[in-house]
Specification:
The complex is a heterodimer of chains A (190) and B (349). Chain A is mainly α. Helix content of chain A is 80%, strand content 0%. Chain A contains 9 helices and no strands. Chain A is elongated, with a radius of gyration of 24 Å. Chain B has 349 residues and is an alpha+beta fold. Chain B has 13 helices and 6 strands. In chain B, strands 2-3-5-4 form a 4-stranded mixed beta sheet. Chain B has a two-stranded antiparallel ribbon with strand order 1-6. In chain B, helix 4 packs across helix 6. About 2% of the residues of chain B have low confidence. Classes of the chains: A mainly alpha (190), B alpha+beta (349).
């Protein structure tokens, strides 16, 4: 009889330990995915710099929206340094808008279109924007997994026992409602 | 799009989370059955061995004695040991086997020879980020005209995807990415480890049953009119013919379940079901259109059977037209219609 009670006790302790460790791993996964977004943002700017260098030979750079990218990037860096997360997201979203219009800009410069480097860089820009979007998706996915884990029973009992370590509130990466309305009414202007 | 293969299909909502959850549960059941079968076979061997020591005992008495440890189930324990060692050896050697016989070369950002190769690498890297994998899988191109792809790798660290040139040329960027997402889903769901473990256990079960069967049939126990040992012999004979069939059916069911799960995983990564559906239709159509040429190409590539279950599209399916239910039972992949239905596309009319 005593043996059975002991086994049950050990199983409970084992379960608590496994759940605790799993939640910690999920929290760290969210943190990692958060940093991945930074990595992709940084990479995007470097790709843009290469693009701008190639493109400068074919067009009056000052007349294009590409010069806005540099300005926006400086804006984003400043916002990040000041801890202004919202301002940073705004600036980076505007860069995304410019990126999505690049093909249309290139149509106006046949010599530029024919340049092999430019074709390659176009793929790089597309890929970089994709990676940024997927890293945001992955970040949100890992938050979903963690939130569902910590709120489910019986894990939530264990979380309430170790609130400081196990209960972290991560915001989903999202647009504000005003931004959503803006984006939905956006049309391409040629 | 002028030539949209999906125009013949009606869309309906499909929940990739539900598909993944259902298939995960099915997997647990299948693995549970395998484990149970393995234990029962071990106990059967022990029952046979112990019936020699206790010839008067009934089979059920021996069974009860073994599971309560009154008799020590030595054979069962030994079988577990053998399984552990075989699995360890298989895990260590597995990765070298998958590329056997093909002409292939690896793609990295430095060695990419063309824009399309660079694009392929980019699509894999994008899916790696979406999946939250820690390590970038190796990307290989196989020099073949037929459209196919497979993934291999015991863990994230040793993961690889391989894709034929035919597939690269005939799919657009999104469809290519959907195929890569399917393959990466196999990797992150640890399907390779799972199917390897299940098939190894199935093989061990069949081997042990064979040894038991021949031992029981040809040992010198004919002299006794012992009813209990005859009963045991009957059990052994029935099990020896029944269990291999059950094992194979279970294995194939497991393979089909994991394929559907990988399809749902691809939808999860891309957040869209159209590219994968289009890719599957294109691949299937391509195989049917070039059936003889591809059959020859597959036949001429050595060690093709190693890859057969791992491919995204089963080459044998192109050969069968009306799929009977018996054929479905013995297939490693669900039919095209079944996969499209799971993705949310039902054929109209």
């Amino acid at each position: 009889m005593g043996l059975i009670v002991l086994i049950i006790l050990l199983l409970c302790v084992g379960f608590v330990i496994l759940t605790y460790n799993r939640l910690i791993a999920q929290i760290e996964a969210v943190r990692n995915n958060q940093k991945q977004i930074d990595i992709q943002l940084d990479r995007r700017f470097k790709v843009f710099e290469s693009l701008i260098n190639v493109v400068k030979k074919y067009m009056d750079y000052e007349q294009t929206t590409l010069k806005d990218v540099v300005a926006l990037r400086n804006q984003a860096q400043l916002a990040k340094a000041n801890g202004d997360e919202k301002g940073r997201i705004d600036a980076e979203n505007q860069i995304s808008k410019i990126a999505s219009n690049l093909n249309i800009v290139f149509e106006q410069y046949p010599d530029l279109k024919a340049n092999q480097n430019v074709l390659q860089l176009q793929e790089e820009v597309v890929s970089t924007e994709n990676k940024l979007a997927y890293s945001k998706q992955s970040y949100n996915d890992s938050i979903e997994i963690y939130n569902a884990s910590k709120k489910s029973f019986p894990a939530n009992v264990i979380v309430s026992a170790f609130t400081a370590k196990l209960n972290v509130d991560f915001p989903y990466w999202q647009l504000s409602e005003q931004k959503v309305a803006e984006q939905e009414s956006y049309t391409v202007k040629l | 799009m002028a030539n949209n293969p999906l125009q013949h299909y009606a869309t309906s909502p499909a929940d990739w989370r539900k598909t993944i959850r259902q298939n995960t549960n099915k997997t647990y059941v299948i693995i549970g059955i395998f484990f149970l079968m393995y234990c029962l076979i071990g106990l059967l061997v022990d029952m046979y061995v112990d019936s020699l020591a206790y010839p008067a005992a009934q089979p059920w008495q021996l069974f009860y004695a073994l599971i309560t440890f009154q008799l020590f189930p030595l054979a069962t324990i030994v079988m577990f040991g053998v399984a552990a060692i075989s699995l360890f050896v298989a895990y260590t050697l597995h990765d070298q086997l998958m590329l056997l016989g093909t002409e292939y070369h690896e793609i990295t950002p430095d060695t990419a020879q063309s824009a399309s190769e660079q694009q392929l690498y980019n699509t894999v890297e994008e899916m790696k980020i979406a999946a939250g994998l820690r390590y970038m899988p190796k990307v290989y191109i196989i020099n073949a005209d037929y459209m196919n792809a497979f993934a291999s790798g015991y863990s994230e660290k040793s993961a690889m995807v391989a894709i034929t040139r035919g597939l690269m040329d005939k799919l657009n960027r999104d469809e290519l990415q959907a195929v890569m997402a399917h393959e990466l889903s196999h990797i992150r769901h640890l399907d390779i480890k799972l199917t390897l473990t299940a098939s190894l256990l199935a093989n061990l079960i069949i081997m042990v049953l064979d040894m038991l069967f021949y031992n029981a049939m040809f040992s010198n126990r004919r002299d006794s009119e012992n009813r209990s040992s005859n009963r045991l012999l009957t059990i052994i004979i029935i099990v020896r013919y029944l269990l291999p069939v059950i094992s194979i059916i279970l294995l194939l069911y497991l393979s089909r379940t994991r394929e559907l799960m990988a399809d749902a995983g691809a939808v999860e990564l891309m957040r869209s079901n159209e590219p994968l559906a289009n890719a599957l239709i294109k691949i299937s159509g391509d195989h049917v259109a070039h059936r003889e040429a591809y059959a020859a190409a597959y036949a001429n590539t050595p060690h093709e059977n190693v890859r057969r279950e791992a491919y995204i599209f089963d080459p044998h399916q192109a050969g069968f037209q009306p799929l009977t239910s018996l054929n479905d039972l013995f297939s490693t992949h669900p039919s095209l219609e079944a996969r499209l239905a799971a993705l949310g596309f039902k054929k109209k009319n």
